[in-house]
Amino acid sequence: MTKQYAVGLMSGTSVDGIDAALVTIEGSGTNTKVELVHFVTTSFSPDLKERIFQAMSENQSTSALICSLNFELGEVFANAVKQVCKEAHIPLDKLSFIGSHGQTIYHQPFQTKDTFPSTLQIGEPSIIAYHTKTKVVSNFRSMDMAAGGEGAPLVPYSDYLLYRSNSHGRALQNIGGIGNVTVLPKKPSLQNVFAFDTGPGNMVIDGLCERLQGIPFDKGGMIASKGMVHDTLAQNWLEWESDFFNKTPPKSTGREMFGEVFVNKIIQENHHLANEDLIATATYLTALSIANAYKKFVFPTHDIYEVIVAGGGSFNRTLLHWLRELLPHQEVKVQEDIGFSSEAKEAVAFALLANETLNGNPGNVPNATGASEPVILGSITPCPVKK
């Protein structure tokens, strides 16, 4: 097997910036070997972050804004590739390919009266390919949706390849803007792996921090640690989106459900409470939604010994405290406890998914997305020049 250098790019619903993971990859499928070489996060400028949020807003977005951002973000993604390679002292011409998730602008996984099931990630792959002189795999979610799936979550395939265990069941819980879990039974096969979005991750917490404190997030969960959790209030917030929480997986969600409107309602109805209390209760809400999802949809049919947390939420000590309190019979760990990187997990996953695409292998897990069958994901943009 030939070892290749690749970069995985991820920008999530929190819109914090771009995660770029430089990896080496050998083989494909269950023979895949992947190692993280270097990882960087490139923050968005305040102006760019604001325009991305505008593009997500049904009231503020325009086709001209989305069109322009698509190309602008392509350049920002390309610069992230250059940065991670430069810091690792790996020349760009050593890269075999790039897997770019892009920036989700809208995700509508189910049909409504006025909309067709659809999803849109921007960050033009031609721009990335041209500026890095490297093949790019992008647009991962669309083919799964074409096959009747929700286009999310997609990380379960890489979770299966990297984290399966012959000795015990594991739950891989990612806490980015949205929370999602991959359930890996003991000695799993792809047929019995399943996954779904658990609800809000950092999105509500970050939104409250931005509005109430003028800061992008609660570093380490320090603000939440000083507040009082209002349990009844958290339960009420769950009721606002009870259709989602009660729905049997597969299911996915996003900013459309737990973004600005959700945060505004919290503030408007609870202005009498201290900022710290609201942020503490939102932190508890995330932990509670995860624990409830496990108790309702995972534990009745699967024996789970470990819960392994990744994403930005893994650095929130108050959130982890509540998760351990609510899941007393499971070992709640973070990626670093088992030798992986919490920050790089999703970016590594899209490098791995790109590798599967280029090897002609399906990259979705139908039990996770609801697709009718396994399908090869993504669109391939070739290197624009001969290397």
UniProtKB/TrEMBL annotation:
Pathway where it operates: Amino-sugar metabolism; 1,6-anhydro-N-acetylmuramate degradation; Cell wall biogenesis; peptidoglycan recycling
A Pfam family this chain is assigned to: AnmK
Membrane-traversing stretches: none
Enzyme class: transferase
GO molecular function, one term: kinase activity
Keyword line: ATP-binding, Carbohydrate metabolism, Kinase, Nucleotide-binding, Transferase
Primary role: Catalyzes the specific phosphorylation of 1,6-anhydro-N-acetylmuramic acid (anhMurNAc) with the simultaneous cleavage of the 1,6-anhydro ring, generating MurNAc-6-P. Is required for the utilization of anhMurNAc either imported from the medium or derived from its own cell wall murein, and thus plays a role in cell wall recycling.
HAMAP family reported for this sequence: AnhMurNAc_kinase
Stated name of the protein: Anhydro-N-acetylmuramic acid kinase
Organism: Rossellomorea pakistanensis
Lineage: Bacteria, Bacillati, Bacillota, Bacilli, Bacillales
